């Protein structure tokens, strides 16, 4: 019995050390206050987006919750106002799966809001299907919607600088690829409906986020706007709420032990949004509040330029 208790104790201590170092991860150390600043956080009605918005509201920012689902957004709005003690939190409807909705959001925002200091492109989805514009769902929501939104708001960001754009990507971008032939033929980053196909398409969309950030930084050179992409960690969120229910049930015990919660998952986003002195690292990719190297495919200038041009065409920005 003594040996068993000793072994059990060692397992518990080992897990606690593992959890604090690898699961919980680093914490944003910035004490910056944001009174008089305005931020947009997409997908901020749940998960790391909601925790990001809450933190920014506590710092005094005017926070725009840019969300698709009105009911869930209004519930999050009430929570964030109550927990932050701030009335400077506003819901504005945004459906990233609709280019019309993105344009409408940007038009309304620019008419009603005087400033924009932080744009946090956080929203993401993990499911197959097509947007109303005929784009692949993950390509459209995870990337193209944010590409258009960012471009429509860039002038305001420049006017209010120094300002930042933060793109929430994923470690999964390492497994991604950008197939321009597939994009041309299907307006999608891949075909197939198997679990492997869906995972690959998701990773492809996240590679687009990282490549977009690389190109955006080049185009923002000599302006007072900087941009960053990041991996938030492996998070226990609602990203996969459309995934197979049996798979989610099997994943639940693993996620409870080894996945970050939403507060821990928001820390690298907050670091990129708030940490002083990051300007020389514009265009870089972060994980665990630390800048990381990326594979050549994520910083390929020719691919980045082509993706930008294809995206402009798909959005009607040309």
In brief, what are we looking at here?
This protein is an alpha/beta fold. The chain has an eight-stranded mixed beta sheet with strand order 3-2-1-4-5-6-7-8, sandwiched between helices.
Walkthrough of the structure:
- With 318 residues, the protein is α/β, with parallel strands linked by helices.
- The protein has one domain: NAD(P)-binding Rossmann-like Domain (Rossmann fold), CATH 3.40.50.720.
- Helix content is 50%, strand content 12%.
- It is built from eleven helices and eight strands.
- The longest helix is centred in the middle third of the chain and has 25 residues, at 195-219.
- It is globular.
What keyword list fits this structure?
318 residues; alpha/beta; Rossmann fold; eight-stranded mixed β-sheet; 8 strands; 12% strand; globular; oxidoreductase activity; oxidoreductase; Dehydrogenase/reductase (SDR family) member 13b.1; NAD(P)-bd_dom_sf; SDR_fam
